[in-house]
Amino acid sequence: MSPTNVRSAGSGRPAPGTRALAALLGATRSQVLRQIANHAPATTNEIVAALEVSAATVSHHTGVLSRSGLITTRRDGASVRHTLTSLGRSLLDAHGLPAAPPAPPRL
What we know:
- By secondary structure, this protein is an alpha+beta fold.
- Helices cover 49% and strands 13% of the residues.
- The protein is built from five helices and three strands; from the N terminus they run H-H-E-H-H-E-E-H.
- It has helices at 16-25, 27-38, 44-51, 55-67, 86-94, and strands spanning 42-43, 71-76, 79-84.
- Strand 2 (71-76) and strand 3 (79-84) form a beta hairpin.
């Protein structure tokens, strides 16, 4: 089970907000969004390692999330970094799912 899942207390099942977000976005895409939210800026390789999926899978899902306005994506040398947008944060908040505070801007 992915470390980004939130569990209901004592039940061993994902919390209702996690299930609702997965129903809305799909299980993998919701995990990608939550990984970015909790480790932003997150690189594609970091997401691949955390979720144990292929780079192609992560690239596909981050593309959809970016086009939907939930994340921003930018190239930083050889890496691609993904950051949650305010819309993405609002979506997680609406589902009662925590996200790390926004990272300070890089100079």
